[in-house]
Amino acid sequence: MHPLSPILAFRGPLEIIALIAAVLPFLIILRAWDTLPEEVPTHFGVTGRPDRWGPRWQAWILPIVSIVVYGVMSVTTGIWSWVLGRESELPHGLEMFVIMKPMACVLMAYISHVTVRVARKEIERLNPWIMFGLVTIMVVPAIALGILAKR
User: Fold this and answer.
1) Separation between Cα atoms, residue 22 and residue 109, nearest integer Å
2) Are 48 and 133 in contact (CB under 8 A)?
3) Domain ranges in the chain?
4) Which of 50, 81, 84, 124 is most buried by a 10 A CB count?
């Protein structure tokens, strides 16, 4: 039995989460577009406070990046072949993407949500603990999977 079999059993649900989370930033910005001010935060510092602002159209950058990340990770891992039942194995060495992809997309959805709320002056900053938590949930299991995959 492959040492990653228990984790890879969750590949289907994690793919669904990743797809939903990849599309979510588009929906967030689309829904908020009419109420966004002309200037939106484009970067947040380590404390969570915005340290760079830009024109409103730049709110679309993160949703585009989210779709690109989802697409690149999906093509790399052969998800379409897996969904269509042509190949059941994840390419060796890419097991970490099973967890990284959905968490990266959730992270971008969170930042899109915070961008809207900060731009509208509903909140002052993103929560650095949430960011740290999401990054940790993405990176630590991915590193562990990478180590296990080499065995």
Assistant:
1) 7
2) no
3) 5-32+53-150
4) 50
